[in-house]
Amino acid sequence: MDKPQHFIEIACFDKQGALAAAQAGAHRLELCSNKSLGGISPDLNWVSEVIQETNIPIYLMVRPRGGDFFYSELEIKEMENYLKEAQNLAISGFVFGCLQRDFSLNLSRNQRLIELANGKPCTLHKAFDETKFPLQAMEDAINIGFKNILTSGCAANALEGLPIISKLIIKACNRINIMPGGNIRSSNLAHIKNISEASWFHSAALIGQQNIPNANEIKALLNT
Q1: How many CB atoms lie within 10 A of CB 53?
Q2: Is-contact 7 27, C-beta < 8 A?
Q3: Helix, strand or coil, per DSSP, at residue 149
Q4: Containing domain of residue 177, as a range?
Q5: What mean pLDDT comes out for the span 140-165?
Q6: pLDDT of 142-153, one tens digit each?
Q7: How far is CA 116 from CA 27, 82, 87, in A?
Q8: How many domains in the chain?
Q9: Residue 3 — very low, low, confident or very high, per pLDDT cuts 50/70/90?
Q10: 1 in a domain, yes or no?
Q11: Residue 120 lies in a domain
């Protein structure tokens, strides 16, 4: 029997990494910058170059800084302007997440960004993992129009968060795509896939001290 089909999104932090991931066969790229900050909005100049040199769906991180997800009005305006400017490029989707001080989703701010995406699918990134009530946060995300949730199951990594990831996928019932992420590698993907029954997985595919996705690791992820 054939293995169930799965899809791999690779996080890329610069042009070199994005081109390497596309060449290795990744199904989708998440473009961001500054890995040490957990990924922030990348410079649209190199994003544009990646788009011109690849033929692969690209999701763009919209995050003005590292740290928490409690944004000021000025930071929200920056995110809105960035998203508007990115609309001039052939972006397939966007990645962002805004929280309130009680760690629930900031529905109005997230919904405003979703509206500015003009129908392009939006992923709620791992700000989701800081919410106190993930099942309710998922319902809120569905209601305001997110199409994907990137999550480690509110744990340090996807392997540890498998119980929550599995519960989210069952409760989602195909209303939103739950995408496990957080230290996913070819060495643990089979277990995570079998337990969660997810279809999309997110990985940086970094090996050792490398700063760009490893082509062999991507191919192993694809073939697991």
Answers
A1: 12
A2: yes
A3: strand
A4: 7-223
A5: 98
A6: 999 999 999 999
A7: 25, 10, 9
A8: 1
A9: low
A10: no
A11: yes
Identify whether 93 is part of a domain.
yes
Environment class of 171 (CB within 10 Å of its CB; exposed 0-12, middle 13-18, buried 19+): middle
Distance of CA 179 to the CA centre of its chain: 8
Tokens at residue 178, please?
Answer: 């739950």
Find the CATH number of the domain harbouring 103. 3.20.20.380
Kindly state the tokens that stand for 69: 């997800």
Of 8, 2, 5, the residue nearest 29 (C-alpha)? 8
Tokens of 4: 């169930």
Residue 2 is assigned to a structural domain of this protein: no
Q: What's the rounded Cα separation, in Å, for the pair 213 and 222?
A: 13
Would you list the DSSP string of 26-37? Answer: -SEEEE-B-GGG
> Are 170 and 153 within 8 A, CB to CB?
no
Q: Is 119 exposed, middle or buried (0-12, 13-18, 19+ CB in 10 A)?
A: exposed
Burial class (CB in 10 A: 0-12, 13-18, 19+), 196: buried
